[in-house]
Amino acid sequence: MAKVEQRGTLSKSDLRDFYREMLLIRRFEEKVEERFRAGELAGFLHVAIGQEAVAVGVCRALEDGDIIMSTHRAHGHSLAKGTHPNEVMAELYGKAEGCSHGYGGSMHLYDVEHGNMGANAVVGGGLPQVTGAALAFKMRGEPRVAVAFFGDGATNTGAFHEALNMAQLWTVPAVFVLEDNKWAESTPESQHSPLRDLSKRAEAFGMYTVKVDGQDAEAVYKATRKALEHARSGKGPVFMHVDTYRLVGHYIGDPQIYRPKNEVRKLRETKDPLPLLRERLGLSDEEVQELETEVEEIVEASVEFAKSGTDPKPEDALKNVYA
Amino acid sequence: MATEIKLPRLGQGMESGTIVKWLKSEGDKVEKGEPLYELDTDKVTQEVEADASGVLLRIAVAEGEVPVGRTIAVIGEQGEEVAEEAKAEDRPEEEGSPGPAREAERERGRAASTNGSQTESAPAERSLDTGAARLKASPLARRIARERGIDLASISGTGPEGRVVAEDVERAAAAPASAAAPAPAAAGEVEARPLTSIRRTIARRLTQAWTIPVFQLTISVDMTRTNELVTKLRAANPDVRITVSDVLAKLSAAALMKHRDVNVQYTEEAILVFPSANIGIAVAAPQGLVVPVISACERRTIPEIAIARVDVVERARAAKLQAADMEGGTFTISNLGMYGVEQFIAVLNPPQAAILAVGTTEDRIVAVDGAPAVRPMLTLTLTCDHRAVDGATGAEFLATLKASLEEPGLAL
Amino acid sequence: MPELSYREAVRDALTQAMRRDDDVFVMGEDIAEMGGSMGVTQGMLAEFGPERIRNTPISEIALAGAAVGAAMQGMRPVAEIMYEDFLTIATEQIVNQAAKHRYMSGGQLTVPVVFRTQGGAGWSPGAQHAQQLESWFVHIPGLKVVFASTPEDVRGLLWSSIYDDNPVVFFEHRTLYGLKEEVPEEIEPIPLGRARVHREGEDVTVIATGRLVHEALAAAAEAEKEGVSVEVVDPRTLQPLDENALVSSVKKTNRCVVAHEAVVRGGFGAEVAAVIQYQAFDWLDAPIERVGARFCPMPFAPVMEEWVVPHANDVLEAVYRTVGRGN
Predict the structure, then answer these.
(1) C164 and C61 inside one domain
(2) Of A67, A186, B168, B258, which has fewest CB within 10 angstroms of its CB?
(3) Tens-place pLDDT, residues B312-323
(4) A19-23, B29-33, C152-156: least confidently modelled range
(5) In sequence order, what E strands does chain A have?
(6) Could you tell me if C148 and C28 lie in one domain?
(7) Domain check: are C139 and C210 in the same one?
(8) CB B169 within 8 A of CB B196
(9) Are C91 and C217 part of one and the same domain?
């Protein structure tokens, strides 16, 4: 994947590439929903429709060698960090060709070669490990940054507070990316936190915080560059408060009885990052259609790849338990 | 082209749903994403949105419970023909199988898991002691009984709560056949005698011996000349009580020196051949069987052997033997002749490779030079560890012993 | 041969591994200047500095999790959990994270981390500082579990644990820290998964862990006077378990006692008993006896604490029961 060359600035062609990547994630996840509903996919699946600009904006800002740890809503992060759609889809189908070779599934997508240290299905569970990974980089003097994705729900866990406190105390090169989509499963932020501004939680540890509109891919990219520079230069960790929206339910099939239907409809009209970026770029219908066709081919091919993949042998379950 | 609307799976574990009502009628225009019908699942009642845009050509299931994957409606172009099978309600679907996703693969995993993969080894074949279902016996006792064809019900247990333990079975196995199936027990309490440590040692060593492959050789000996020799020796040594056993020890030692391959011990690495014949004498002490050793019998005179034997036997009966008295044996003699036993098989005394079972000397009618004659006869049975001693080797030893007992002068 | 206490033996393994290898470091609560609550890391700060003898906040989740994260990046951290009771706080990171990363990634990751901890009764710290929780972790595929009972063992096993590519939960018993023993000059690594026969015997096998190894040896000496010959075996590594050593010992003696300080119910001894009965069923001449603490939280009053946990005499009585002499 081509890195954006000039630090902090983005050409129209860069942004068009961002759009394409976001579109790929969107269509990929819609395909996942479709195949799940059709009964082809096992497991618990969570899509991040509406949050694509965060995944793309953050991951495009990373350098080779930087690592991420993700959440149960990880398809977009994995694709944006460079894992091939075929491998992600094959994992969702439980195939040996999957990015976790069929051992992980949707909530445990890994791709160590591409710096994805795993999606974590315990809310907040990966945060201490991001602190630890960053500590390793610091102790070895490596110019690498460890990046955590997590949601607003995670900011209520003990792991969050312990991990951020420790990261700031030890000034490790970590970036904590809060994808604040206002919902912890079915619980709205008003019911799970006494604060409306969750970045105050990081400020309480003395951590440098950055706020950014998560529906604006360019803004996310620029904020991430800034955060990475801070962390990499040894000034300590950064807390990125990214304001975003989950335009779907918590899981595939979630009837969302806990939120008014018109809320989702309204958000889709005003907060969908794809039309926002398209408008900004002034892409014509033809240009969009061209991208749609290209992306659709990739997604369809990923399903073909996955379906024709190799089922693990049942007894392969006993492998990889110990090194 | 028409799109079949199938009942979707709306969450892990959903197998079916109940259509409550349709929000559109046949012939209505429908937009993708528009609420199409109301569905009741075990979780919640919800509106389900249309998967496609067009005209609702047919409602296949108006209401009621439907399995996941079943076609419930068709959306297509105005006027489009609806394929006949799309109406069929019970047609199995290739997609959207009910229940947890990928049932076929789950089934394969289940099938594979019944191939013993849950346990590392198949359990050993076990027979059911149906006749002794309520009998308490340790697994080890049951195994020994099974292997030797002993009925556990015939054994009284000495373990906790009357449990039959291995030693009880060993004891029953060692008893004469008639004792293995006793007459109905007389009324009265079963006496449980606590095990002594010597009893434990006997049990352990003899159980160990039982696992060694052995063979037995039996031979009869005319004891006329040996008896004469004993009489003469007694006359010459009035202070010493010389017996046939002492002559047997001496002549066995001499034969062992001639047939060194019997004076051996088997080990995993090598066969140990001993330079001296240290003869163990099995003694029935009050506390149990003990086997004190008289060393280097080949270098002792018969009266010297007798003196040594009387010493150890007396000390054995007084329970005053030292451990050193019982060490270093290379061959054992077990004599039950004084009880009138004609012949018997002795159990090996490991690690020794041979043991001689001596019966009683009795007058028998035998053929001498073609005519019947009455002679004092003795039957000897040699038990050998076949790992160390072959049949011919044992037979040669026994032949030498017989010859020297019949003509002691040849050996002495 | 130098004489080392169990405490010094742990320190020696840590020190030598850290001298040899920059990737090895120690982190934990109060481990730097203070040298840890049990003084195990005393003096190490002076040699290695605060980066590698790293004091942490009282944050067991982050302490354990940061060690896991560093291990995933190729470090070999040794995280000290001050009291094994506090493992309960760190358990999410140990059980859901450390034990699973390799598996969930389909073999892409290794997590070479050691969680050192200590506990046990004897000093009356009460219900939240004296538990023995080793069996919890034996239940988790992906973890290795070690419980060392002597200075030589603790040193050789810790060394192997540090250089094992899997997460290891390493249990020490508090009352053993002062125990001294002559040990070889050079550390001899002890492979994980190998039991140690402390004493050979013919009549009964006692399979004991931690402090109970010493109680079992005392019981064996006592039993010998009564003509009962006791074999004492310490598995040392609870996972992987040296099943062959345990089973072959019981096949020899035909009787088995399992002994640990943790409560009997659901204790490690239950697993050992299950292994023995399955693999040596036809060799058993008596029911397998289990020795462990009574089923209550650890009480404070010394008189109660001593009564709750097992001692040599409890092992001895169990031994006698197996040979039909007990009550």
Answers:
(1) yes
(2) A186
(3) 888 888 877 777
(4) B29-33
(5) 67-70, 116-119, 146-151, 174-180, 183-184, 187-188, 208-213, 238-243
(6) yes
(7) no
(8) no
(9) no
CB atoms within 10 A of CB C182: 10
**Domain-located, residue C188:** no
- Residue B211 — very low, low, confident or very high, per pLDDT cuts 50/70/90? confident
Chain A residues with beta carbon closer than 8 angstroms to that of C24: none
Same domain, C147 and C242: no
Query: Which residue do the tokens 């955060």 mark?
Result: A227
**Chain C residue set in contact with B, beta carbons under 8 Å:** 202-203, 227-228, 254, 278-279, 281-286, 321, 323-326
Tens digit of each residue's pLDDT (9 = 90 or more) over B77-110? 888 877 665 554 444 434 333 446 677 877 888 7
Together in a domain, C173 and C200: no
Three-class SS state of A5? coil
Size of interface A-B (CB pairs under 8 A): 58
- Band of pLDDT at residue A208, cut at 50, 70 and 90: very high
Judge whether residue A261 has pLDDT over 90: no
Of C51, C62, C105, the CB nearest to A139: C51
Average pLDDT over residues C200-218: 98
Interface of A with C (CB under 8 A): 67, 98, 100-104, 108, 110-113, 117-118, 120, 122, 125-137, 139-140, 146, 158-159, 162-163, 165-166, 169, 319-323
- Per the residue annotation, which of C60, C84, C231, C305 is the catalytic one? C60
Q: List the structure tokens of C95.
A: 């059980």
CATH of the domain at C210: 3.40.50.920
- The pLDDT assigned to B184 comes to 44
**Dist. CA A262–CA A21, nearest whole Å:** 28
Q: Which residue has tokens 């900011």?
A: A155
Find the closest chain C residue to B126 by CA distance. C282
Q: What is the pLDDT of residue C195?
A: 98
What is residue B351's predicted lDDT score, i.e. its pLDDT?
A: 87
Q: How far apart are the first and last CA of chain B?
A: 118
This model of the complex carries an ipTM of 0.93
Span A130-161, pLDDT tens digits: 999 999 999 999 999 999 999 999 999 999 99
- Select the more confidently predicted residue: A6 or B269: B269
- Asked if the structure places residue C327 within a domain, the reply is no
Q: Is C290 helix (H, G, I), strand (E, B) or coil?
A: strand
Query: Which residues in C lie closer than 8 A to residue B163 (C-beta atoms)?
Result: 286
Q: Could you confirm whether C60 is annotated as catalytic?
A: yes
* Domain span at C287: 196-322
Q: Is the peptide bond before C112 cis (omega within 30 degrees of 0)?
A: no
User: CB–CB of A255 and B14 under 8 A?
Assistant: no
Say which CATH number the domain at C17 has.
Answer: 3.40.50.970
Query: Strand B362-368 and strand B354-358: pairing?
Result: unpaired
Q: Of B87 and C319, which is predicted with more confidence?
A: C319
Q: Which helix (H) or strand (E) holds B289?
A: strand B288-290
Whole-prediction pTM: 0.72
User: Where among C127, C156, C182 does a domain terminate?
Assistant: C182
Q: Domain total for chain C?
A: 2
Say what the pLDDT of residue A7 is. 54
| C129 in active site | yes
Sheet containing strand B35-40, strands side by side: B45-49, B35-40, B16-22, B64-67
pLDDT > 60? residue C61: yes
The verdict on residue C175 lying in a domain is yes
Q: Residue B119 carries which DSSP code?
A: S
C166 and C222, same domain (yes or no): no
What's the rounded Cα separation, in Å, for the pair B16 and B1? 27
Give domain A12-302's CATH superfamily: Thiamin diphosphate (ThDP)-binding fold, Pyr/PP domains (3.40.50.970)
The dihedral through the CA atoms of A276, A281, A282, A288 has a sign that is negative
- State the pLDDT confidence band at B3, using cuts at 50, 70 and 90: confident
Chain C, 33-52: which have a CB under 8 Å from a chain A CB?
51-52
pLDDT given for residue B129 in this prediction:
39
